[in-house]
Design brief:
The protein is an alpha/beta fold. The chain is built from three helices and four strands. It has a four-stranded parallel beta sheet with strand order 3-2-1-4.
């Protein structure tokens, strides 16, 4: 089901990216990153220095861990209890 509605589910994400003001090498946080594909897109489009994607689903994170780009990482975290150790310039969630 997740893949079946990928295009419709992803469109708001691309609309959101268009609204983000450019910054020089921002540090980005993606809450509920799922399989990481959109996280990678945001990381590259925003030319982020670092991007952390968090999700509570081990199955989704297993897929996300297959994606590689300098500065991109993923963590198993619950959004409700997540306390970042660093500050982020931009926080996104789709």
């Amino acid at each position: 089901q997740y893949k079946k509605f990928e295009a419709a589910r992803s469109q708001p994400f691309f609309d959101l990216l268009k609204l983000i003001s450019p910054q020089d090498s921002p540090d980005l946080l993606d809450l509920g990153c799922g399989d990481g594909k959109l996280t990678l897109t945001a990381h590259q489009e925003l030319k982020a220095s670092t991007t952390l994607g968090i999700d509570s689903s081990p199955e989704m994170l297993q897929q996300a861990q297959l994606l590689h780009d300098p500065g991109l990482s993923f963590q198993n975290e619950d959004i409700q209890t997540f306390h970042p150790k660093t500050k982020f310039h931009c926080i996104i969630s789709n």
